[in-house]
């Protein structure tokens, strides 16, 4: 068993243990789940460092891109736990990390031809910045879903033992806010770096490809959310729905546009 399998196993066990929120009163299982996702993140970090030092391309296909995305989601979730201790988010973050690491060990090695430009360290930084920002948006999405669900349950007076495991609405909104405020600058810098690299490598900074266009749509949506939070006092339900909509566009851009019309961003092999 190599360490890629160890990563997948850690995320799988973490998913099972964090799901105990839905059937068990004990919080010890979720604590163990945190240790497993932390162990998975540490081993995954080691595997990525090893791959980079051995000269392997870290974003040569869709499987490796998802592997990196899962790593960032785990890091963001672990960091959020140290600050907020909102363990219920793990019931969603851990399964996402598990699902996204599966293609890396399932897809046969060598089936995807390496793309030489992706070995450029600046392109890797461009990809890493955007994936890190989108990982933060993912956690904002999870907090948004939990916020909407919990608020609806409270309004319908269905407040039972189940909701005792939920973070408070204030905590969920705070997680959404912080993830948005950190993630947006990272994505902005990543896109700006991508424009500079495109100008250098292709002679044009912007070609209005499908992936580029939808990436800009995503950026504009989150820019509106930032403006709404800072200038119009958007929070709570509005901010939660904004995070959900933004994540939906990210998934559409990554999977639908990335598969049907990847253009210059063909990471699907």
| Envelope shape | flat
Percentage beta strand = under 5%
The helix fraction, in percent, is over 70%
User: Which H/E pattern describes the elements?
Assistant: HHHHHHHH
Structural class given helices, strands, pairing? mainly alpha
Largest sheet features: none
Tell me briefly what this model is.
The chain is an all-alpha fold and 269 residues long. Helix content is 73%, strand content 0%.
Describe the structure.
This protein has 269 residues and is mainly α. The chain contains eight helices and no strands. It has two domains: 1-115; 120-269, no CATH class. The radius of gyration is 19 Å and the shape is flat. The two termini are 26 Å apart.
Q: What layout of secondary structure does this protein have?
A:
Blueprint: H1 3-18, H2 28-53, H3 62-84, H4 90-106, H5 121-155, H6 169-202, H7 210-231, H8 237-260
Characteristic terms for this protein:
8 helices
